[in-house]
Amino acid sequence: MKILWTGSHGFIAGYAIEKLLENGHVVYGVDNFWKYGKVSKSFDNHENFHFTEGDAKDVDLLKNIIVENDIEIFVAGAAIIGGIAMFHELAYDIIAENEKLTCAAFDACIYAYNKENSTLRKIVVISSSMVFENTDSFPSKESDLIKCPAPSSTYGFQKLSTEYFAKGAYLQYGLPYTIVRPFNAVGIGEKRSNTGHEIFSGNIKLCMSHVLPDLVLKIYKGQNPVHILGNGNQVRHYTYAGDLAEAIIKCMFSDEALNDDFNLSYPQGHSVLELADAVWKFMGKEGNVPIIQDKAYTWDVQKRIPDVSKARNILGIECSTSLEDSLKEIIPWITEQIELGTI
């Protein structure tokens, strides 16, 4: 198939586009390198990857790519996204810019889908576990979303908005969709962001205010005790980005995923303390990790625990890579990047 992926040089996209190309699909990418600056991907020179450096808020650009190249699936991946510090620092820009990106994606797809002899089959919306920010139902099912309070953070609220865009475009214009909600992706490829000011945790400047790379950085540089936000009992389902890429691809191509939404996650949760201890031991330290608790951010969700039975039962999706196996790939890469000065 022919696929257009906005935010093509982002984190999860890096895993997914590589797999799509390996499977013989043709991928058109759009990215403006807003977050990291110019980055390269393994697939940049692949014969079936066609890249346009541009702004995914440019509706005419998106329309032209869809129509001129007979795009069949549009993946709305472009977004301002970052760690918890970015939720606070860029609270307005996150909602404003991401709404513009969402509007552009849907405006272009509605236009293309309703053209005569349209090839466009659907739009795939990359949502987020943050739509469940204020739920008190655990594990959280897709159907619980209509019962839980709206997210408090502008990031979570805007991600919920993307899901309503999808439902509205389908109801009014017949545009088919699939909504995917990745939970706490971990993997390689993320670098230090170009945005925001320096944020320190103890004596260490944070990498990206993402818990895993920041823990690796602190331990690698000898911070002792290791600073964490809050009491460390926050529960996350750290999901290997390679598994998420496979899961998103299944959602893209499955007829059973049409006009539906799916939680995508590793089924086992870990607290921040458990993660810190796992990183500590993986990096050759003895005993339990020594911890000092710093004041938590306002929007530091205490639990994100997904129910993944819907994706498993309908689509056969299993995100099965354990945290321990993920760390075998991720920690050596992060330490190498620390030495190179990229994070």
At CATH level 2, the architecture of the largest domain is: 3-Layer(aba) Sandwich
Major sheet attributes: 7 strands, parallel
**What global shape is seen?**
globular
Mean pLDDT figure = 93
The tally of domains stands at 2
Helical region count?
10
Indicate the radius of gyration in whole angstroms. Answer: 20 Å
- The class by helix and strand makeup works out as alpha/beta
Distance between the termini: 35 Å
Lateral strand order in the biggest sheet: 3-2-1-4-5-6-13
CATH fold-level assignment of the largest domain: Rossmann fold
Fraction of residues in H or I helices: 25-40%
CATH class of the largest domain: Alpha Beta
Write a structural description.
With 343 residues, this protein is an alpha/beta fold. The chain has two domains: 2-186 and 239-267 and 308-320, Rossmann fold; 200-234 and 269-304 and 326-340, UDP-galactose 4-epimerase, domain 1. The chain has helices at residues 11-22, 59-68, 84-89, 91-113, 154-173, 211-220, 241-253, 272-282, 309-315, 323-340, and strands at residues 2-6, 26-31, 49-53, 73-76, 122-126, 177-182, 185-186, 200-201, 204-205, 226-229, 235-236, 239-240, 260-264, 270-271, 291-294. The strands form five sheets. It has a seven-stranded parallel beta sheet, sandwiched between helices. Strand 1 (2-6), helix 1 and strand 2 (26-31) form a beta-alpha-beta unit. Helix 2 (59-68) runs parallel beside helix 4 and helix 6 crosses helix 10. The two termini are 35 Å apart. The model has no long low-confidence stretch (mean pLDDT 93).
